[in-house]
Amino acid sequence: METSIEIVVRPTEIDVNGHVNNAKYVEYLEWGREDWYERLGLPYERLLGLGAVTVTVNLNLDFRRECRQGEALTILTRPERIGRTSFALRQEIRKPGGEVAADAVVTLVTIDPSSRSSRPVPEELALAFRP
Predict the structure, then answer these.
(1) Considering 5, 14, 45, 94, which has the largest number of Cβ atoms within 10 A of its Cβ?
(2) d(CA 18, CA 1)
(3) Nearest Cα residue to 28 out of 95, 117, 113
(4) What class of enzyme is it (predicted)?
(5) Are 127 and 71 in contact (CB under 8 A)?
């Protein structure tokens, strides 16, 4: 399932070069992932109830075009691949008109919240990766 959220670049997200600071792109992607979990019916509390939480272990982010204050951006999130204890999501930040401003593959690992050790991806989450 692909999800999409809309945001507007705020003045506090702009750096000295007059465009969105690189760290903010990581935050935008996180907002997209949180929305993806919510729409799957797996908010943090639900995953915790399944004995699992997810942690980001790798982020490959390519910056394509600058974003400026006041621009409406769309963050797209979709499943990329799944393993036994980890999975990856592909994300894009698009400018008005659909031009890709940034794209990323984010790898996450499922861990047991008590032991803090990796554990298999819960079935409810794994279902999002099936056709």
Answers:
(1) 94
(2) 35
(3) 95
(4) hydrolase
(5) no
d(C-alpha 75, C-alpha 83), whole Å: 24
Selected from 3.40.50.300, 3.30.9.10, 3.20.20.150, 3.10.129.10, the CATH number assigned to the domain covering 3-129 reads 3.10.129.10
- For 21-39, write each residue's pLDDT tens digit: 999 999 999 999 999 999 9
pTM: 0.95
Q: How is residue 67 written in tokens?
A: 């974003």
8 Å CB contact between 106 and 59:
yes
Is residue 41 a contact partner of residue 57, using CB atoms and an 8 Å limit?
no
Q: Contact at 8 Å (CB) between 61 and 102?
A: yes
- DSSP per residue over 87-101, as a string? EEEEEEEE-TTS-EE
Neighbouring CB atoms inside 10 A of 32's CB total 24
